[in-house]
Amino acid sequence: MFVFFKKLLKRAFSFLQKTGPKTKYTYVINGKTYIQKPLVWGQIRQLQNILSGIDIPKDINAISLISLFGESLQEAIAIVITEKGVELGKKDIDAMAKEFEFNLDMHTATQVVEDFLACNPIASLFERLSGVITQVWGKAQQTTSDKSVSS
What we know:
This protein is mainly α.
C-alpha cells in the first residue's frame, strides 16, 4: 500500500513540475464568465488604494483576507477578476462591484479569494517587492553620497 501512495505522489509531483501552478481561474457570476490571472502592476496599485493603512500578515488565508477587505470585498474582487473578452485596463470596476453586491454568493467570493492567494503568493510578492525597494533605495543613497563627495 505504501508503494502505491509513493508512486501516486511521485506522479503528482512530476505533473506539477511539468505544468506549474495554475495561473488562470474561471467563474460564472450572474450569467457572465470572469477570469482571474496573476496580478499586473495596475491591479496592485488599485488594491493598494483599498488596503492603504492595513497591515497584511504573511500567513494570511482566505477568511482573514475577506475580513481585511470588509465592505470593500466586492471592489477588490472587481479588481482581481475580469469579464471574459473585456480588456483589463478598460473594465468598469465600480459597475462590476455594484453588480457583485447582490449577485456574488459567498461561496464564489471565497473561491475567488482562495484562487487569488494561490495565483499571487502574497508573502512572496511582498518579499520580492521589498527586496527591489531596498536595492533601489541603496542605489539612490549611494548616488546621493557620491554626488556630495564630488562637490
